[in-house]
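Run log // design_07
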């Protein structure tokens, strides 16, 4: 299939012919002319830029597609005018770049430019930034606003709509106020670069950063404060610039930040001990710690780490890196950990001898005998570590805001004479102290009460600095009792609920269990999603043991992002031990078998040729699986699972009973089928366009199919078409600007010329193939038809030549299509679209969304689209892609417990005509390391 079966001659001719063919340029003036004229006068475009032609599409640094302006790129041109509000009228604009000029006046709102992907305004003299700027900018991936003398502005709410955003850069742009509360990974799943340095931001880093994909975070040079605890959950970070702010508190745990290279914390008020999780971080390359109040031993980083940590600019106990502090220092630091390492102590506890004038510490011959922390504004809990100060006689913690209990450990202090915790928010029973210890607890409203911790509260007495909220002084005795009761009752009902759910789930599961039944378990695995394990037969009970399966549960977790591992035993059973009779077809690297589950559900199982895959292949197999699990759409053949077992690599797909589009389009006579009528062809074209549009525009990544052709389009019983074979799918850069270089893969006749010649691939490669498929649907002829005379052997060339000529137009139409005026008009429109998609120059080809628009307008003439609500992975086409993705994710989450019905949901009661996705294994042949 993918093998170039045709003689090299043919391919060469096809390339030669196609390269000489050019679409006739349209001489009509662009509808964007008025707005562009405004832009020209408003910006006072210098004559060095040739913007004189009446047609803006002819101007230098301006690009058009279909006569609409798509790109304006005029950086560094010494321009000093203003931007006109009519910029908004350029609705097809994708890239707008005016950086490094001297442009004045406000940045106009671009609200509604849904195509806009990149906007660069940096290094100008812009005076203001509109708050509705981002409204409707659903394609925006990158914006730069740096170094403009804007009037003070806050990060606008409208930013929320730019959910594709990867880069937001606005350093030195006069931003004020706090971080908004929507910088969460759900709103911005792709955000990797957030550069907001040298502004006037205040407040804390938002908690919503937790779990974000941000890699590069610059917020240095302003008035941010609070702790930086949240960055411990930002595991994608590579570069963190927090310097020159007012951050305080201890450094967080860095163990999840395994990509972190560059960490700049200098000129803040960080206190506490530099955590080993930072010191030992393998990825670390540069770390700046100068001018903080860091305590404990001077950290010793690996030799290859560039460290900026001026001696004396912190509060380390000793100057020599890696040398441990005095024991008493260690104990005192561990004690103040539970109150968040207050700056006041850090400021005044210098050196390595606590008996040398440390505030709050009184010594007697080198032993700490008194700790006097009265009225120091402490919040947090009383540390258990006080018990390590064995000489302690007086402990005064009065007049603070301490909460939690008095730890029983304090009662072990042998010399303690006086403990004063008055006027705090301490609660709980006072431990039994020796009778001669003077324990003062006045002014703690809940002291002495035997508190039962509520379900939500943490256990009291821990060393954590966080306070259980809601335990305020105002709470009365009754209130507490009530709270406890609610806690207990709540706990009980929770328990009942859990039991109920378990029982329900068990029942649900057992419904599909029988000795030869698939048993499906979903494991929650962190936040990444869900893993399904399908257990083999002969397993009894709920235990998760595998029988006759060499891949243990650990294998299941090898593929990230919620793959669906299926045991080889199950697949052997359902395919009759891969019997000859079950073969649906052979192709590429493997054989596709039909499988039938006990309940009649049919599946297609692709088994790779063993030995064909190297270790590299294995890694790629896993990578591809990870991709699969993210790619789900009504018009893409669903991958239901995979199996990795020794040398065996298998993939399980949904079974498509009506087989390939080529069967119905080219082989219908031999197969005894009816030819497809035009309405059907149109619907299929739209299905395919929607599937490919989804692939190209998935929220986080864009995928390129690279091998679209009728044999990779499968039909269901309802003749709903789905795109199959993602074996050649590659990640595409979302902006479409760059291209990925790959080893050639694909099929002659469908391959875009620039791809065939250079091997460079963008999404436009698929658009070309789609154009060819449209031509095939119209003509019923194959892309390369060796039965044809040489001049019409290559469909694209022949189609164009025949179609443009009015007299010969009808010749392109398949004879089996019954024509009327309406259909003829429709075919004409689709022919136009086909030529447009099949344009020689990739930048003349439209995006798939354009094809979807054209086709859906035609399909609606006959058949209003019917929403299939029962398709759980169906995408509501009214939604924008990011919205749709979110909805799908939500659906997936809500369907966690419906796993079994998912596998069993494919309804196949009808014909057994083969349908199978082919060629997945091609990826191993074609994929390259870059
Ligand atoms: C811009 O669009 C608005 C409304 O769509 C229209 O009224 C106006 O004439 C357009 N201006 C230019 C210069 O195209
Ligand atoms: C920038 O704009 C202000 C007015 O907004 C103007 O006074 C100043 O001269 C401009 N600077 C440059 C370099 O154009
Ligand atoms: C942080 O700064 C804000 C004002 O910008 C202030 O209200 C708040 O109390 C500060 N928080 C801390 C922890 O210092
Ligand atoms: C980090 O993530 C965990 C798990 O999602 C969450 O419980 C915790 O509160 C987060 N911590 C911070 C500081 O955001
Ligand atoms: C951090 O320290 C390194 C080494 O001293 C220095 O080269 C770099 O400029 C500093 N970076 C920042 C952001 O301060
Ligand atoms: C203790 O905390 C409460 C609320 O958090 C605050 O109103 C009060 O002023 C604090 N008291 C002291 C002594 O810091």
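design_07 sequence
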């Amino acid at each position: 299939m993918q093998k170039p079966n045709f003689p090299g001659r043919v391919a060469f001719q096809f390339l030669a012919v196609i390269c000489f063919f050019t679409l006739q340029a349209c001489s009509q003036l662009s509808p964007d002319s008025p707005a562009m004229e405004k832009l020209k006068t408003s910006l006072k475009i210098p004559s060095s830029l040739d913007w004189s032609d009446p047609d803006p599409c002819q101007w230098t640094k301006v690009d058009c597609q279909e006569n609409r302006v798509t790109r304006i790129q005029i950086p560094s041109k010494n321009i000093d005018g203003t931007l006109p509000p009519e910029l908004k009228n350029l609705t097809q604009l994708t890239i707008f770049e005016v950086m490094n000029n001297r442009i004045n006046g406000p940045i106009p709102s671009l609200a509604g430019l849904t195509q806009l992907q990149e906007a660069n305004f940096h290094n100008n003299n812009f005076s203001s930034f509109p708050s509705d700027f981002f409204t409707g900018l659903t394609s925006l991936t990158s914006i730069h606003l740096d170094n403009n003398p804007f009037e003070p502005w806050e990060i606008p709410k409208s930013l929320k709509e730019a959910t594709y955003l990867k880069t937001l850069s606005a350093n030195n742009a006069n931003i004020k106020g706090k971080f908004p509360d929507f910088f969460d990974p759900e709103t911005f799943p792709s955000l990797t670069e957030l550069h907001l340095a040298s502004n006037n931001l205040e407040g804390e880093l938002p908690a919503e950063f937790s779990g974000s994909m941000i890699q590069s975070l610059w917020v240095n040079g302003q008035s941010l404060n609070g702790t930086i605890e949240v960055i411990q959950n930002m595991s994608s970070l590579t570069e963190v610039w927090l310097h020159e702010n007012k951050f305080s508190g201890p450094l967080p745990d860095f163990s999840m930040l395994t990509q972190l290279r560059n960490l700049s914390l200098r000129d803040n008020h960080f206190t506490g001990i530099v955590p080993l999780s930072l010191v030992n971080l393998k990825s670390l390359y540069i770390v700046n710690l100068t001018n903080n109040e860091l305590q404990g031993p001077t950290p010793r980083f690996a030799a290859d780490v560039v460290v900026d940590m001026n001696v004396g600019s912190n509060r380390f106990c000793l100057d020599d890196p890696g040398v441990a502090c005095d024991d008493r220092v260690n104990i005192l630091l561990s004690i103040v950990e539970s109150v968040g390492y207050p700056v006041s102590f850090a400021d005044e506890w210098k050196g390595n001898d606590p008996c040398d004038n440390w505030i709050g510490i009184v010594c007697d011959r080198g032993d700490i005998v008194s700790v006097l922390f009265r009225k120091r504004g402490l919040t947090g809990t009383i540390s258990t570590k006080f018990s390590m100060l064995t000489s302690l006689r007086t402990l005064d913690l009065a007049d603070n805001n301490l909460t939690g209990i008095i730890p029983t450990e304090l009662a072990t202090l042998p010399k303690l004479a006086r403990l004063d915790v008055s006027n705090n928010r301490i609660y709980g029973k006072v431990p039994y102290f020796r009778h001669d210890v003077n324990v003062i607890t006045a002014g703690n409203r809940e002291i002495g009460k035997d508190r039962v911790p509520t379900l939500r509260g943490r256990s009291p007495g821990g060393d954590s600095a966080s306070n259980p909220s809601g335990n305020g002084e105002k709470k009365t005795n009754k209130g507490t009792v009530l709270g406890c009761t609610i806690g207990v009752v709540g706990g009980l009902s929770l328990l009942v609920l859990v039991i109920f759910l378990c029982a329900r789930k068990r029942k649900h599961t057992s419904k599909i269990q029988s000795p030869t039944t698939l048993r499906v378990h979903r494991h929650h695995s962190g936040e990444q999603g869900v893993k399904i394990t399908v257990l083999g037969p002969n397993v009894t009970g709920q235990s998760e043991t595998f029988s006759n399966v060499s891949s243990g549960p650990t294998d299941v977790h090898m593929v990230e992002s919620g793959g669906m591992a299926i045991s080889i035993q199950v697949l052997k059973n359902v395919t009759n031990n891969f019997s000859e009779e079950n073969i649906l077809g052979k192709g590429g690297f493997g054989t596709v078998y039909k499988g039938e589950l006990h309940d009649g559900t049919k599946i297609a199982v692709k088994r790779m040729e063993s030995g064909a895959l190297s270790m590299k292949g294995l890694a790629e197999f896993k990578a591809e699986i990870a991709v699969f699990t993210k790619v789900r759409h009504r018009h893409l053949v669903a991958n239901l699972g995979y199996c990795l077992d020794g040398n065996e690599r298998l993939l399980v797909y949904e079974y498509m009973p009506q087989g390939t589009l080529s069967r119905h389009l080219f082989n219908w006579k031999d197969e005894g089928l009816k030819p497809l009528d035009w309405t059907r062809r149109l619907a299929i074209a739209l299905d395919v366009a929607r599937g490919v549009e989804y692939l190209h525009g998935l929220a986080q990544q864009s995928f390129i199919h690279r091998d679209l052709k009728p044999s990779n389009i499968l039909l269901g019983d309802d003749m709903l078409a789905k795109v199959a074979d993602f074996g050649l799918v590659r990640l595409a850069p979302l902006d479409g600007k760059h291209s990925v270089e790959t080893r050639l893969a694909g099929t002659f006749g469908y391959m875009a010329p620039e791809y065939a010649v250079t091997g460079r691939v963008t999404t436009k490669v698929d658009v070309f193939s789609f154009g060819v498929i449209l031509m095939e649907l119209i003509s019923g002829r194959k892309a390369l038809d060796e039965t044809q005379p040489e001049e019409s052997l290559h469909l694209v060339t022949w189609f164009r030549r025949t179609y443009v000529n009015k007299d010969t137009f009808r010749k392109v139409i398949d004879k089996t299509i019954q024509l009327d005026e309406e259909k003829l008009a429709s075919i004409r429109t689709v022919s136009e679209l086909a030529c447009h998609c099949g344009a020689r120059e990739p930048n003349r080809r439209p995006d798939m969304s354009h094809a979807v628009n054209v086709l859906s307008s035609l399909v609606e003439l006959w058949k209003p689209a019917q929403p299939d609500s029962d398709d759980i992975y169906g995408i509501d086409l009214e939604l924008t892609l990011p919205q749709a993705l979110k909805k799908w994710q939500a659906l997936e989450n809500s369907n966690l417990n419906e796993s079994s019905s998912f596998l069993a949901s494919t309804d196949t009661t009808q014909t057994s005509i083969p349908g199978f996705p082919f060629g997945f294994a091609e990826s191993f042949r074609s994929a390259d390391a870059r």
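The mean pLDDT is 76.
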